[in-house]
Amino acid sequence: MKDWRLLNAILLALVLPFTCQAQSAATWSIQGLTTNSQVQSAGETNYFRNGAMVSNQTAVVTMDYGTQNTNSGEVVAEGEVTILDHGHIWRGTNFIYNFNTGEVKSATFKTVQGAFSLAGGNLSGSTSNSVYTAYPAVISTDDYARPAYTIRAKSITIALGDYFEAHQATLYWGKTPVFYFPYYRRSLGQHPNNFEFSPGYRSIFGPYLLSAYNWYGNGMLDGTIHADVREERGVAGGPDLKFHLGDWGQAAFSYYYANDQHPNDDGLNAPHLSENRQRATFNYEVDPRTNMTVKVVGNYESDPLVVRDFFEGQYNTNVEPNSYAEVDQLWPNYELNLLTQPRLVDFFETVERLPDLKLTGLRQEVGDTPLYYQSESSAGYFKRAFSDTNTLFYLTNVTLNPNGTFSTTRLTNTPADNYSAARIDTFHQFSIPETLFGWLNVTPNMGGRLTYYGDVDGPQSHTNAQLRGVFNTGMDVDFKASQVFPNVESQLFDVHELRHIIQPEVDYAYVPAPNRSPSQVPQFDYESPSLRLLPIDFPDNNDIDSIGGMNVVRLMLRNKLQTKRADGVQDLLNLAIYTDWNLHPGTNKPWSDFYTDLEFRPRSWITFSSSTRYDMANARWREAIQRMVIQPSTTWSLALTYDYLINNDPEFQTYFGQNIPGHNLIDASFYYRMNENWGVHIAEQYEAQYGGLQQQVYSVYRDLRSWTAAFVVRVTEGPGQPNDLTVGLTFSLKAFPRFATGSDSDRPNNVSSSSTLLDPPTPYSY
Question: Are 450 and 467 in contact (CB under 8 A)?
C-alpha cells in the first residue's frame, strides 16, 4: 500500500472544512500527487494518471489513475484508492464513486468501524442512508496484518456508526474454523460483555484477586459487577450502573460493600472502623432546556477511610466529597442557582444548605452610560455541622528532632458545636472601565453588601437576628505593551522572531470595618485556608461571612515571550510575579509573601514550570514547586518534580488551626517504549526531609495482540505511614479499553484498588 495517498487524503480532509467556502466558485479541486502526475480534460471528462486527488466540499478521492465526469459527478478510480466521504475512510481497489449522490462501489475494500476492521469485496452503498453491503467479508478486532482470529462471512451489511450484520459467518482461530454463526449482528455503539481480572499481592491485603464483569445492555443501561477477594481482609464487591436516559439525561450509581476482617491492618488503629464497610455514590445530570442544568450528587461512606482503603486513587483526588442537588439557569445577563446540600455522613464537616437560592447579575452595561453593574443576591437556611469524630486523627504530623530522628503524632480537632441560621444577602457593585491615552486601562468600582442573619440556634449558643452592612471600593489599573524583534533567531531554543509582552497591574481594594466583625456573625461561607493568594475583589471574593476591614494593594507584573515555531505562535516564556501590600496591616505584616508563577518552553517538547512563595520578612522559602517535562516523541518521556513546603510554620498553624506537616519531595517519572510489544515505566518519590524513598512504582507493559498486560510493583514507606508492598498484574482488552492510555503515570495508587464507572482506576496499558 502506498501510504502517501492516504496521508494526502487525511491532510486534505483536515483542511477541507476551512477551504470549503473558498471553493464556491469552483466545485472541484484536482491535484496531482507526484511529479509525474498527468491530468487531461476532454469535454466533461477528466483523465488522471500516476496519482491524483479529486475533492469537493464533502469528499476526497485519491487514486493511481482514473476518470471523472464533471456533470454526473461520477469518478472511476483504479489502482490503489482511498475515499474520505463525510468523515469515513474507505480503502481498496477499483472504486466507482459519485460525488453528487454519495453512491460507492468497489471490487475490494477495507474500512474501520469502532474497534472492528472490515474487509471484503463487491462493496455497494450510499451516503444517503449510510448502509452498505458486501460479499464476501472478513471481520476482526486484532490489529495485525495477519490477525489471530477472524469472522469470515458470505455477506455483510454495514450501517456506518450503528451496526453490522454478517450472514453465514464462521469464527476462525488462525486457519482453523471454531464456530459457525448463521446470523451475527454487532452494535457499533456499545462494547461486548467481558470479564476483567487483576491478581496481585499487597502487604495490608495479602494475596488478592479483583474481578469485574462488564456488561452492556440495550443502550439505556450498562455497568460492572465487582467481586473482590483479599486474603487478609475478606470479600467485597458491588455494582456500578450507568443509565443513558436520552433527553432525560445521564445517571450513574455505584455501591461497594466490604466484609473487612481486619480494618486496622495498616497499623493506624483508627477508631470507628467496623467489619461492615460500605460506600455508595450517585450522579445524575440533565439539561431540560437551553442553558438549564440539573445535577444531583450523592456520596455515602460508612467510615472516613473506606475510600482510602479500597479506592485509593479517588481518595487522593477528593478526601471529603460533597452531596448536593443543584438547578442552574443562565440568561444573557442573569443566572439563577438553587443549591441544596445535605449532610449524609457525620464524620466530615459540612455546611448544609437547606436550600440556598442565588440570583447573579452578570456584569452588564447600564443603558448608554459608561457605568457597568453586577450583583449577587441569595437567601437560604444554613447549618454548620462539625465532625462528630476525630477525623484529623487520620492525618500525621512528622517532626524533625534535633538529633536527626523523626517523631510522628496524630493531629486532633477541637470539638465544636453545630449551629444554624437563616441568611439573606444582597451585593451590588458599579464600575466604570475606561481606557486613558489609548493604552492605560483604569476600572474604579464601588459597591455595597447588606446581610441579614436570623436567630442562631445551637446546643451551646444562641444569638438574636442581626443586620450587617459592608461597603467596598477600589480600582484596577493595568496596561499591556509589546515589542517585536524580527531578527532574533536561535536554533538552540527554536526561536524565530520574538515578541515581548509586558503587563503591569495594580489592584486596590478598600473595605472599612463592617458594623459586625466576622466573630460576631455565624460562619457559613468563610475564608478557606489556602497556600496561594485569595481574591481581594468582589464578587470573586465570595467569603460572605468572613468579610472584615481591608486596605490592600495587589501588585502584579506579567511578562511573556512569544516566538514562531512549526505549530504556529508559541509562548517561549510566561512569568507572573505578585504580592500584596497591606496599607493598614494591624496584626498582619505590611507585605505578604512574594509569589511567582513561571512556564518556560525552550523547545516544543520541553516544558519547565515553577510556582514559588517566598517569605520576605524572614528571608525564607515557604513553598516551591518546580517541574520539568521532556517528551521528544511517543517513544520516551521524562518528568522531574521538586515539591517543597516548609514544615510546621507558626503562621500556617495560626491560619490553618493545626500544625501543617511540610515536605521536601523529589519526583521522577520515566517512560520508555522499547518496541511495538514492550514498554516500561518507572516512578520514584524521594522525601529529602528524612532522606528516603517514599514511593516507588515499576511497570512493565506487554502487547498481547488483542490484549495489553502490565506487571506493576509499588513500594511505599516512610515516617507516618506503614511500609506497603503491592504487586499487581492487570489486563485490558485493546479493542475495548475502559481507561485512558498512560494514566498509570498520573494515578499509580490504583494498582490494587477496585474500579468504578464513576471514577475508573488506572490501566497499566500503553
Answer: yes
Give bridge partners of residue 557 from the DSSP assignment.
504, 577
Give residue 697's identity as a one-letter amino acid code.
V
pLDDT digits (tens, 9 = 90+) for 86-100: 778 888 888 999 888
C-alpha cell at 191: 462494547
DSSP-derived 3-state class of residue 157: strand
Beta bridge partners of 525: none
Alpha-carbon torsion 732, 734, 737, 739, what sign? positive
534 pLDDT more than 60: yes
Amino acid at 530: S
235 has pLDDT over 70 = yes
List of residues 6+ apart from 204 with CB closer than 8 A? 232, 233, 265, 266, 722, 724
pTM: 0.73
Q: How many Å apart are CA 170 and CA 522, to the nearest integer?
A: 73
The SS3 assignment for 14 reads helix
Q: Per mean pLDDT, which of 141-145, 296-300, 745-749 is the most reliable?
A: 296-300
Report which listed range, 170-174, 175-179, 284-288, 758-762, is most confident.
284-288
Strand partners, 505: 478, 556
CB-based contact 86:96 (threshold 8 Å): no
Phi and psi at residue 40, to the nearest 5°: -125, 145
* Chain position carrying cell 464462521: 170
Share of the chain above pLDDT 90, in %: 47
Q: How far apart are CA 248 and CA 26, in angstroms?
A: 45
Cell of 25: 466558485
* Residue-wise DSSP of 469-495: EEEEEEEEEEE-EEEEEEEEEETTTTE
pLDDT of residue 392: 47
Residue 86's CB: how many other CB atoms inside 10 A?
A: 10
Q: Residue 683 has which C-alpha cell?
A: 516512578
Closest to 83 measured CA to CA, from 51, 111, 46, 45: 111
Q: Tell me if 18 sits within 8 A of 42, measured CB to CB.
A: no
Q: Which residue has the cell 511578562?
A: 559
Q: Provide mean pLDDT across the span 133-151.
A: 81
What per-residue confidence (pLDDT) applies to 398? Answer: 47
- Of 235, 234, 252, the residue nearest 243 (C-alpha): 252
Rounded Cα gap, residues 546 and 522, in angstroms: 9
Question: How far is 142 from 24, CA to CA, in rounded Å?
Answer: 43
d(CA 568, CA 564): 6
Distance of alpha carbon 554 from alpha carbon 476, whole angstroms: 9
Phi, psi of 17 (to 5 degrees): -60, -25
Please tell me the distance from the alpha carbon of residue 508 to that of residue 473, in angstroms, as a whole number: 8
Least Cα distance to 158 among 193, 140, 137, 131 occurs for 131
Per-chain mean pLDDT for the chain: 84
Cell numbers that stand for 561 in this block: 515571550
DSSP state of 370: S
Q: Which DSSP letter does residue 415 get?
A: P
Report CA dihedral (530, 533, 534, 535) to the nearest 10 degrees.
-170
Omega cis (within 30) before 263:
no
Whether 484 contacts 497, CB under 8 Å: yes
Which helix (DSSP H) or strand (DSSP E) does residue 108 occupy?
strand 103-113
Question: 246: left (phi > 0), else alpha (psi -120 to 50), else beta?
Answer: left
